[in-house]
Amino acid sequence: MGDLGLKEAFASITSGAILNALLVVVVASAIIVAIQKVFPKLAGKVGGKPRLYLLALVPLLRLLIIVVTIVIVVPILIEPTFENMVAIFGALGLAIGFALKDYANSLIAGIVTLYEMPYRPGDWIEVDGQYGEVRSIGARTAEILTPDDSIVIIPHSRLWNALISNGNDGTDNLMCVAEFHLKPGHDVSAVLSLLRDVAFTCPMTRTWMPVSVVAANEPWGMRYRVKAYPLEPRDQFRFVTDLTARGARVLAAEGIGFTPYVVQGVS
C-alpha cells in the first residue's frame, strides 16, 4: 500500500512541474544568499542592539523562506491529497530515521535553537572550551569566530548534552574582567579606589553600567578583579588589555608590586 501510494503521489510529476519547482527553488536560494550577504554588511555598519537584531534576522528569514518554498513546491510536484501526503512524509520519515539520523538530530536541535534562542548571531558564547562570536546559525550548525580569527563549526545537537555560556545573551552588554595579582602588605581600600578609577576613566568603558572591583585574599597575596562593560562586545579584548595596562601603570606609580607567581590550582 505504501509503494502504491508513492507511485500515485509521483504520477502527476511532469517536466513542466519540475521546471516550475526548480524556478521556485532558484529564486528562494537567490533570496537567501542575498540576505546572508546584505544583512551582515548592514550589521557591520551599525553598533549596539540594531546590529544584533540584524544578525538575528538572518537565520529566522532563512528558515521562513525554506518553509514557504516547501509549501509552494510540494503542490506543484504532487497533488496534495491526504493519501499522497501520508505516503510522502512516511517515506521521508524512514529516510531520515535510517540514513540521516545524526543530521536529523542536529536539524531538530537547530529548530529548537531558533525557538528557544540560547544563542543568536552577535552573541559571545563558549561551548566545549571554544569561545567566540556567533557569526551565523544554519539549519544544522552554528559558526563562531574565535579571538584567534578561526571559524568553529558547532552542531546544534551539542545543545542536548553541553553547557553553553552566553556572555551577552542577545544584548550589547558584555561584562569583562581584568585581574591583578598583587603582593601582600598594601592598603586594600586604596587599591580598590585606584582600580575603580582606572575602569571609569577608560574611554572604552560603559560608565552608565555597573563597575565593580572585587578583592580576595590568596595564599600568595591579594587578587583583584575589575569588572566592567566595554562600549562594544567585539572590543572586549582591547578593553581588558587597556584596563590591565592602565591598572599596572597606576599601581606601579604607587609602589604596589605584583606577585611574581600564582600558586597552580589556587588562582
TrEMBL record:
GO molecular function annotations of the record: mechanosensitive monoatomic ion channel activity
Main location per the UniProt record: membrane
Entry keyword Ribosomal protein: no
Domain spans labelled Mechanosensitive ion channel transmembrane helices 2/3: 60-101
GO cellular component, one term: plasma membrane
Membrane-topology descriptor: Multi-pass membrane protein
InterPro entries for this protein: LSM_dom_sf, MS_channel_1st, MscS_archaea/bacteria_type, MscS_beta-dom_sf, MscS_channel_2nd, MscS_channel_TM-2
Function recorded in the entry: Mechanosensitive channel that participates in the regulation of osmotic pressure changes within the cell, opening in response to stretch forces in the membrane lipid bilayer, without the need for other proteins. Contributes to normal resistance to hypoosmotic shock. Forms an ion channel of 1.0 nanosiemens conductance with a slight preference for anions.
Name used for this protein in its record: Small-conductance mechanosensitive channel
Species per Swiss-Prot/TrEMBL record: Marinobacter nitratireducens
